[in-house]
Amino acid sequence: MVQHRALDTKVTKPFIRDREFLWNEVHTAHATRDDALKQIEGYVRICDRYHEDLAMAAMVLRRTENDKFPGAEFSIAYDTLMQDGKVIQGPGGHFLGQNFSKPFDITFMHEDGKKEHVWQTCLGMTTRQIGAIIMQHGDDKGAVLPPRVSPVQVAIVPIVFKGKEEAVMGKARAVRDALSCAGMRILLDERDYSAGYKFNDWELKGVPLRIEIGPRDVAAGEMVAVKRNDGGKVKLKLSDVKKVEGLLEESRGRCLRSPGRRSKRARVMQRPWRN
């Protein structure tokens, strides 16, 4: 290191305009053109499911000749409209044909014993997608994570008062175990902080659903579920596992519908220019 500036780690927008990306890239080689094209089609199907899990209204677009990867026959990429009106490019793929295998003499032995040049594709995505999820769904309170990809789907916050700790924690643990057995990713927040601090913390982290259990709830056999995406509160029975699953699916649907409507409103059909 010659200058102290070389040690500067500041970034203008984490995950979006960063100093470094973790790039996951795949290069494939095929015997025929059709096999290589099928690889691109398979990649599109995988990315469609991937964006559905992220609840992102992405559009897969074929790039123009001027915008495609140099040397590719054609390029595709997923573009997603953010809340601020900007578009972020997500996963992308390139059909390279034989434009690289011939100059670099990348060959394989065919069944008849002849050497032939391979047909190539290139596919990849980066950690920018993390930033795209936050920009697509987040609000002024923090992140809003789609349930399918959120590390914690439900955060249980016990509201304890002196003399009521055992009753509240007992029910909170029972709810945690029931939801976990149903396949949900649950965290019981037993940290030594106030309930208000925990509420804010889980909102900031974007956990899709927060469950509050206090002494009155225990007495009534109820719990309060708070949805992160719209702040709505729903009273449930302590045994309403299915309704918790329903709230998570409802949250995913809302996460998907809102960006979809925004994307459709922003599209303009460009008619051919007339002389």
Description:
- This protein is of the alpha+beta class and 275 residues long.
- It has 6 helices and 12 strands.
- It has helices at 33-53, 128-137, 165-181, 195-205, 215-220, 241-266; strands at 23-30, 58-62, 74-81, 87-97, 107-109, 115-117, 119-126, 154-158, 186-188, 209-213, 222-227, 233-237.
- The radius of gyration is 25 Å and the shape is elongated.
- The model has no long low-confidence stretch (mean pLDDT 89).
Strand content: 25-35%
Strand order of the largest sheet: 1-7-4-3-2
Helix percentage = 25-40%
Anisotropy-based shape: elongated
Indicate the mean pLDDT: 89
Radius of gyration: 25 Å
What is the helix/strand order?
Answer: EHEEEEEEHEHEHEHEEH
Number of helices: 6
- Work out the number of β strands: 12
Low-confidence stretches: none
Which structural class do the helices and strands define?
A: alpha+beta
Largest pleated sheet: 5 strands, antiparallel
Termini separation comes to: 59 Å
Q: Helices and strands in order, then pairings?
A:
Layout: E1 23-30, H1 33-53, E2 58-62, E3 74-81, E4 87-97, E5 107-109, E6 115-117, E7 119-126, H2 128-137, E8 154-158, H3 165-181, E9 186-188, H4 195-205, E10 209-213, H5 215-220, E11 222-227, E12 233-237, H6 241-266
Parallel strand pairs: 8-9, 8-10
Antiparallel strand pairs: 1-7, 2-3, 3-4, 4-7, 5-6, 10-11, 11-12
Give a short synopsis of this structure:
The chain has 275 residues and is an alpha+beta fold. The chain has helices at residues 33-53, 128-137, 165-181, 195-205, 215-220, 241-266, and strands at 23-30, 58-62, 74-81, 87-97, 107-109, 115-117, 119-126, 154-158, 186-188, 209-213, 222-227, 233-237.
